[in-house]
Write a structure and sequence with these properties.
Layout lengths: L12 H48 L4 H32 L7 H29 L3 H6 L1 H28 L3 E8 L12 E5 L5 E2 L14 E5 L3 E6 L5 E3 L2 E4 L11 E9 L1
Parallel strand pairs: 1-8
Antiparallel strand pairs: 1-4, 2-3, 2-5, 5-7, 6-8
Helix pairs in contact: 1-2, 1-5, 2-3, 3-5
Length: about 270
């Protein structure tokens, strides 16, 4: 068997660049999810304010309209800010992701959060007017509509979170680098060309960026979508490598966010 000298695998800037871009996009989406969760948490707080007012109207017979109005004003401002943040972070994710995705449903739902704000403020004004007129019965008629508006905000936020989670899955990619080793596990310089085949689709992939002239050369596959792949090499005269099947997952990522696949070199 030929003796192969020690080779330290160096990663190209493209690997880091593309990995970083997808990582940033995922962080952006996580921030958008946090903003949607903030809305849901604020809805819970606003519901407590509504329940407190109902108690004041029906049991204590001493409603505090200014306090309720202040809490509703705080609520709608918080929802407005988080709605803006949702759209801002999703927009950043679109700019950073190497894989395009649609944000239409998210934007529509975020805008609907603000539409419900208008309804809530209108109902709050009607409640305040009724209380100031000592017409507590009339004020109570507006309680169910304001609760419904809050529920719609909670549900729309949930829909936003679900949409973003789906996007995170759709844009998830992995960079995989081949490391060739000898029979003792020592790194080698062998490189006669590598390939990866998606076992579900049968599609073949080769190292490098398909848009570059050097596509097919090197050790690293860029932006492979989640799935199970068969990795192997082309035979070079009397030498070749083993092959292996790998299901790509986050658990295989190293500290550089790369999945490293080892192939054993053999020579006749």
């Amino acid at each position: 068997m030929k003796k192969i000298i020690f080779y330290a695998l160096s990663l190209t800037f493209m690997v880091f660049g593309q990995t970083f871009a997808q990582s940033v996009a995922e962080q952006n989406l996580n921030s958008a999810i946090q903003s949607a969760e903030n809305v849901q948490q604020e809805v819970v707080v606003a519901r407590k304010a509504v329940n407190q007012l109902v108690k004041q109207l029906t049991v204590l017979n001493n409603p505090n309209a200014p306090l309720f109005e202040d809490k509703m004003n705080y609520h709608v401002n918080t929802v407005l800010n988080n709605s803006d943040d949702i759209q801002y972070f999703v927009g950043l994710a679109q700019s950073n992701s190497t894989i395009p995705f649609s944000s239409t449903s998210i934007v529509n739902n975020a805008n609907e959060l603000v539409n419900q704000n208008d309804i809530i403020m209108g109902l709050t004004a009607q409640i305040t007017t009724a209380i100031n007129a000592n017409n507590y019965t009339l004020a109570l008629t507006y309680i169910q509509p304001i609760r419904s508006a809050l529920t719609r905000q909670f549900n729309k936020s949930g829909a936003i979170i679900t949409s973003i989670e789906s996007i995170k899955v759709s844009i998830k990619t992995y960079n995989v680098c081949i490391k060739t080793v000898d029979s003792n596990g020592n790194p080698t310089t062998y490189n006669a060309g590598f390939y990866a085949q998606n076992e579900a689709t049968g599609e073949y992939f080769y190292p490098g960026n398909p848009n570059d002239q050097d596509y097919g050369y090197g050790n690293c596959f860029y932006n492979l979508t989640p799935g199970t792949y068969h990795f192997g090499s082309f035979q070079d005269y009397f030498c070749g490598t083993s092959s292996t099947t790998v299901t790509l997952s986050d658990s295989l990522l190293n500290e550089d966010n790369i999945i490293e696949v080892a192939l054993v070199v053999w020579c006749e």
